[in-house]
Amino acid sequence: KIQRMPPWKYLGLEMGKRTLVPQKLAIKNNIKTLADVHQLCECLNWVRPWLGIPMEDLAPLFNLLKGGEELSSPRTLTHEAATALEKVQEMISKRQAHRYHPDLPFNFIVLGKLPHPHGMIFQWDVSNKTKDQGSRDPLLITEWVFLSHHRSKRMTRPQELVAELIRKACLQIRELASVDFTCIHLPIQLGSGHLTKAMLEHLLQENKALQFTLDSYSEIHGQISIHRLAHKLFNQDVQFYISLKNIQSKKTLKALTVFTDTSGASHKSVMTWRDPRTQRWEADVIKVEGSPQIAELATVIRAFERFSEPFSLVTDSSYVAGVVSRAENAILQDVPNMALFELLSKLITLVSHWEQPFYVMPVRSHTDLPGF
Question: How many contiguous H segments (helices) and E segments (strands) does the chain have?
């Protein structure tokens, strides 16, 4: 079958002279089992790159996947999920992607807000006036790029999300067109205003994941822009917000030193320090039920709650030391263990709002290796 006139229909898509949309899509809202939810989510994931359906609009639907693993497990459409489906249906009827222009380069821009930033692969047609059509939209949307609903890491910093988004977009454009982006736009909003070149350099120095992603790109392929192009879609979309403040010190502080430890047998959680005024050792001991990691985490949280001045934290748990070092402004993934989830949430809140510098280090107290 040869299609000579638009719209052309191919692989579930309907292509006009300039635009591209999925063919008429019937959304099944008669949800009864987990299998029905899987089919619905697969269908929506298929159209997302062309229609730009954000993750926060689909989250109530993805939450229906939780629970029993049997495909025959019963499911019902919640009120939040039904509202999400209504939004999706509206987007399907109004949004579209564009056919690519062979003479224009591809660009990428980071958009959205935490915890679900997203991006857009696009072309910018500066010759946006034609004799027969007059002035037309210069923005040609190729695809939207989204991160997975479930991340591999339990805690992820915003800078790491940006790096992951850029890496995914670079792989996608190479697969689609076998080229690299001419420009990557990072119109990031900061607490002190818009991102500047100097701030971008500082951001790269502070985060290895973002540094490796952007350094290799800028040296080989194209440029990095801190500006948004003038378009209503970019102005309407919430700018990605990030904080450059980093209160965690990379070296020990001349300040109060707090030691923490736990006992798996007695479930005792111990925090000890030398009072700088009396020079006497003080201790805070409580019982915490759960694994040693939970007990150690609870002890560290008590340290942040008790002290308001700068301090160095010494713990014998490398797990807890790593968690604390990543907690500032981190995005927390769903954790099945509710006690652990509440502790991690509390730690992230405390560290993100902490105003004094602190230093954290693990000790090798249970090995024969030399150490503190």
Answer: 10, 21
Query: 106 and 232, same structural domain?
Result: yes
- Indicate if 114 and 216 belong to the same structural domain: yes
Q: Is the model's pLDDT at 365 over the cut of 70?
A: no
* Comparison of pLDDT for 28 and 365, the residue scoring more: 28
Compute the distance between CA of residue 115 and CA of residue 102 in angstroms, rounded to an integer: 35
List, as one string, the DSSP characters of 61-93.
HHGGG-S--STT-B----HHHHHHHHHHHHHHH
How many structural domains compose the chain? 3
**Report for 8-12, 151-155, 199-203, 307-311: range of highest mean pLDDT:** 307-311
Question: Residue 22: what residue type?
Answer: P
pTM here is 0.79
**Does residue 116 sit within a domain?**
yes
Domain, as residue range, for 73: 8-94
pLDDT digit string, tens, across residues 171-218: 999 998 888 899 998 877 665 555 667 777 777 777 777 777 777 666
**Maximum distance among all alpha carbons in the chain?**
90
CATH number for the domain spanning 81: value is 3.30.70.270
Hey, what are 6's tokens?
């638009």
Residue 194 has a pLDDT of 59
Of 97, 90, 143, 94, which is closest to residue 118 (Cα–Cα)? Answer: 143
Decide: 190 and 196 in contact? Cβ < 8 Å: no
